[in-house]
Amino acid sequence: MSYLEPSIGGILIGLGSLLTMAASGEVPGISGITARILRCHSGDTAWRILFLVGLIGGAGVAFLSGIGWQDFSIPGGRNLVVMAVAGFLVGLGTRVGGGCTSGHGGGHRIRSKGWPRIHAGFHGGRSSYRPGLEFREWENSTMRWLAILLGGALFGLGMVVSGMTDPAKVIGFLDFFGPWDPSLVFVMGSAVITFALGLFFLRRYLGKSSSINLPDLSTSSVEKRLVIGSIIFGIGWGLGGFCPGPALANLSVLRSEALVFVPLMLVGMFFAQRVFGLDR
To answer: Measured in whole angstroms, how far is the alpha carbon of residue 266 from the centre of its chain?
Structure first.
């Protein structure tokens, strides 16, 4: 089993997250980005949409070039009805827990609410800001928008290269009592290291001399809501083998499983927002 592709994919995910953070001032979390688009938060919707366009486009280019195209399978017993239920649970769980607890590793979970999310990917998330580091001089510049688009494309490409878009690989990672597939650990590890090194560079060499919005990555305590959301998300993730990022990436080639999973994921997010008053 080769761990080169998962490691390369993780590096691309880390770079995409880092570039988007530098351009937007927030660590890009897929579930958080998507949920806030649903809420139509004024002033921050455009860059989020552009990032997702880049993500889907980058994944589509990878698939159409032959990368990861054949590496897609749904383990037995998981029909489209199961994928629909999984999508709803994933969407609901990410919003109840305040983010996604899946494992393509990296920057977003450096700012974590305790161990249940320390290993998570880039999906959820809220970023607070350090005063005095503002990016107003290029807030509406073409380079900023291109950086966000490229960040999304690198993120989507990284998910395809790493194998995160293959539900069977994800479920193999979760199956500790079967033929366990540890390759996603390399995705997580390489993404975290890439993001951490990049963030260190930004803080050390650019933080005081530039106006980049660097998020505050401080930790906070584990909350009941986080634990409940993580459990709901985990059930959905195990059922379908999709979390928000890989599901959106698979939309680029119109896979039927993603076409069922994503709308129900959005319904789950919307349900959490309306019923529980989340993401306000």
So the answer is: 15
Residue among 89, 58, 110 nearest 215 (CA) = 110
Inter-residue contact 269 to 38 (CB < 8 Å): yes
* Exposure letters 207-218 (e unless 16+ CB within 10 A, then b): eeeeebbbbebe
Q: How far is CA 11 from CA 107, 116, 188, in A?
A: 11, 23, 9
Per DSSP, helices labelled H in the chain are 4-24, 30-39, 45-64, 80-96, 142-162, 167-174, 183-201, 224-240, 244-251, 256-276
The closest alpha carbon to 247, from 72, 119, 50, belongs to 72
State both tokens at 236. Answer: 């959905």
Residue owning tokens 């530098």: 22
Percent of the chain with pLDDT over 90: 44
**The two structure tokens encoding residue 215:** 């998020």
Distance separating alpha carbons of residues 218 and 211, to the nearest angstrom = 20
**pTM for the predicted model, two decimal places:** 0.81
**pLDDT tens, residue by residue, 48-102:** 999 999 999 999 999 999 887 766 777 767 889 999 999 999 999 999 887 776 5
Do the beta carbons of residue 107 and residue 188 sit within 8 Å? Answer: no
Residues 132-180 pLDDT 10s: 334 445 556 788 899 999 999 999 999 999 999 999 888 888 887 778 8
pLDDT tens-digit map of 99-127: 776 544 444 444 444 333 333 333 333 33
- Measured on CA atoms in the order 78, 6, 265, 70, is the torsion positive or negative? negative
- List the structure tokens of 266: 């959005």
